[in-house]
Specification:
By secondary structure, the protein is an alpha/beta fold. It has helices at residues 8-13, 47-56, 72-76, 80-97, 108-119, 148-151, 155-159, 173-184, 188-191, 198-211, 236-244, 267-282, and strands at 3-6, 17-23, 32-36, 59-63, 101-106, 126-130, 161-163, 195-197, 222-227, 249-254. The protein has one domain (3-282): Rossmann fold (3-Layer(aba) Sandwich). The chain contains twelve helices and ten strands. The strands form two sheets. An eight-stranded mixed beta sheet has the order 1-2-4-3-5-6-9-10, sandwiched between helices. It starts with a strand and ends in an 11-residue tail after the last helix. One of its GO terms (molecular function) is carboxylic ester hydrolase activity. Residues 32-265 form the Serine aminopeptidase S33 domain.
């Protein structure tokens, strides 16, 4: 089995596409998955999931959100509508090519996946939501984090630069080391930005608030995966969403990892759970062959 990686042609022709994987022998119109990275992140966050899904028989489209993988100034110029437009663009392409389309997202990407499912019930066959971020209430957050929404309404809050630091939401020190090095060198294309301004956080907060009333309207089968030790977003987040979605939900709680579950120690389980969940919905048998009618 071969896995082809499309970067130059696809990425240059489609600015919203980070990369695309597909099996060389698979049916071109077979099931597809959109992968959506997090705020100030990069499509690289999703590669472990992409490889597993591709090997299982899915074509994989990794979205590159507007304003990401460049400078912090690029990110500040964009808001949640721009980020969502990136998802819409890739989704429209996938729907034209494939008979069924699934969507998985990390952090901000999970929120964007939910919004897409609310807007396109007929073309989103299933969801996988990683590290949902409705509230920043993880163990590493300061006690006054609940004041963040009010702070972000001030001019000082909008211009404030929140700088990431160790452990960079990765528990495994060996896996964390190259990510930290890339961030500190400003290699945003590889590891995402080290800092986020308050303006971008406010955009995400406003988007999350807007999304909450949509949850009961979302009927697509959904897999929620969250780390018990998530340093940024506590278990209130997946529990809130799971209780309010309008369709069937499977929740998986992980140990031994932090917020970036697609990069950390449990990344293989995240990928495997996603492949199994989407595979059952798409009629793909274990091992990658499609079954059913």
């Amino acid at each position: 089995m071969t896995i082809e990686t499309y970067l130059p042609a696809a990425a240059l022709a489609q600015p919203s596409l980070g990369y695309r994987y597909h099996r060389g022998a698979s049916e071109p119109s077979g099931p597809a998955v959109l992968l959506i990275h997090g705020l100030a992140g990069t499509p690289n966050e999703m590669r472990s999931v992409a490889r597993c899904l591709s090997a299982s028989g899915f074509t994989v489209y990794a979205v590159r959100l507007a304003g990401h993988c460049g400078s912090e100034a690029d990110l500040v110029k964009t808001g949640w509508r721009d980020w969502y437009d990136s998802v819409e663009t890739v989704h429209a392409e996938a729907v034209c090519r494939h008979r069924s389309v699934f969507v998985a997202g990390l952090c901000l990407g999970a929120l964007l996946a939910l919004h897409l499912a609310a807007k396109h019930k007929e073309t989103v066959a299933g969801l996988a939501l990683y590290s949902l971020p409705l509230w920043y209430d993880g163990w590493s957050m300061p006690r006054f984090a609940f004041l963040l929404p009010w702070f972000l309404k001030t001019e000082r809050g909008l211009s404030y630069r929140f700088v990431g630091s160790d452990p960079y939401s990765i528990k495994d020190e060996r896996l964390r080391r190259p990510v930290a090095a890339a961030k500190q060198k400003g290699d945003t294309a590889t590891a995402g930005a080290i800092g986020i301004t308050g303006r971008s956080l406010r955009e995400m907060g406003e988007f999350a608030a807007m999304l909450k009333p949509e949850l009961p309207l979302i009927t697509a089968p959904t897999l929620i995966v969250h780390a018990v030790q998530d340093d940024l977003c506590g278990l209130k987040n997946p529990r809130y969403v799971a209780r309010r979605l309008g369709g069937p939900v499977r929740t998986v709680l992980l140990d031994d990892c932090y917020h970036l579950i697609t990069v950390d120690r449990q990344r293989a389980r995240v990928a495997g759970e996603t492949s199994t969940f989407f595979g059952a919905l798409a009629g793909i048998k274990p091992g990658g062959s499609e079954g059913g009618a």
